[in-house]
Amino acid sequence: MTTPPKPSVLLIYTGGTIGMIRNPETGALESFTFEHLSKHIPELKQMDCLISSVQFEPPIDSSNMEPALWVELVKIIHENYDRFDGFVVLHGSDTMAYTASAMSFALENLAKPVVFTGSQLPIGVLRTDGKENLITAIEIAHAKRPDGTPTVPEVCILFQDQLLRGNRTTKVNAENFNAFRSPNYANLADVGVHINYYTRRIRRPDASLPMKPHFLFDTNVVVLTLFPGIQERIVSEVLKMKGLKAIILKTFGTGNAPQKEWFTRAVREATRRGLVIINVTQCPSGSVEMERYETGRQLLEAGVTSGYDTTVEAAVTKLMFLLGHGYSPEEVRRQMNMSLAGEITLESDRPLQQDSLS
Asked: What is the predicted pLDDT for the residue at 127?
């Protein structure tokens, strides 16, 4: 009997705390190499898969992450797509949700796992969370269903004991190991003694379609947060900003804004000029429902588009992605009301929230 080949995983180190390996003798933080990683996590040699690695040169602090580097990440995955069963991206936690969201749009028809992970403490520190995060991420990246297809063929974030859809995730804690939450979409898996996958929540790709990479992002986007007492001149200046194409408007509650004549007028004039304005709630969880109250209905009538239950990270990167393709404002608004990669919950998606273990 022929022994089936071992699954293979590509480890992509972009930067971040998880790659800061402290030398116990000198106390210095050494740069990432797979040899250093293997030294500090000897369990990697026991894993039932082949692990290769590549890294950004130089490694990037996640605060410096930007769309040009998202493109580099897309290129790495695209160039190695047929050679590996899955991908693990080591990334700083501060902007991980932005990069994971961007990848969910840029890797169209993705049919393999792309698992983002990182840590709050460097590898080599006695209490590091990076060891378990990395080992579990690699295990998820090559996990298979009984039919041989990948268990989680989408972009996701693995942190602590939770596997989350990447474009549904936001960082909520700068100190706890459990640093991320997915406020409006349930976990894809829970990690304990076993990894319990919730199969009904995981996206299934169309096997007849090839993975299509995208390399275009337009950064003419801004986030405007409303607050009591916001001044007319500030709102007006933002809405008239030269070159601006889209705004994420962070509103109150279910998508509400002050009922001031000047505010409604400014928003209406901006949307008529072709500015795309997406309504996203400031609340940690919940969805925009502009029809619910008069304070939200005025925005709907002024041409504002609902962001449903999207995260700010997903809204920003989705707008950059759509604008990068040169779509008209009307087409951008239409696609912002579509679920391209599971980033918003439409009525037809709600059954996916039901608990169903594989």
From this structure: 64
User: Which pLDDT value is given to residue 3?
Assistant: 61
CA dihedral 35, 37, 41, 47 (to 10 degrees): -70
pLDDT digits (tens, 9 = 90+) for 124-134: 665 666 678 88
Q: Check the CA dihedral 87-90-93-99 and report its sign.
A: negative
Residue type present at position 277: I
**40 membership: H or E segment, kind and range:** helix 34-40
Q: Which of 14, 17, 95, 281 is catalytic?
A: 17
Contact 114, 78 (CB under 8 A): no
d(CA 133, CA 30): 20
Which residues, at least 6 apart from 157, have a Cβ–Cβ distance to it below 8 Å?
A: 96, 97, 100, 115, 116, 117, 163, 164, 165, 166, 169, 180
Residue 17 appears among annotated catalytic residues = yes
Residue showing tokens 């007492």: 229
Inter-CA distances, 176 with 90, 114, 189, Å? 18, 24, 20
pTM: 0.91
Q: Are 282 and 250 in contact (CB under 8 A)?
A: yes
Pairing of strands 114-117, 86-90: parallel
Rg (CA), the chain: 21
Closest by Cα among 111, 131, 91 to 313: 91
Least trusted range by pLDDT, from 60-74, 120-134, 235-249, 327-341: 120-134
Domains of the chain (ranges; CATH) run 8-213 (3.40.50.1170), 221-336 (3.40.50.40)
Residues ≥6 apart with Cβ < 8 Å to 266: 232, 235, 236, 239
Backbone angles phi, psi at 250, to 5 degrees: -85, 110
> What's CA 107's distance to the chain center, in Å?
12
pLDDT computed for residue 186 by the predictor = 95
Whether the ω angle into residue 58 lies within 30 degrees of 0, i.e. cis, is: yes
Quick check: 1 pLDDT over 60? no
224 closest CA partner among 318, 316, 96 = 316
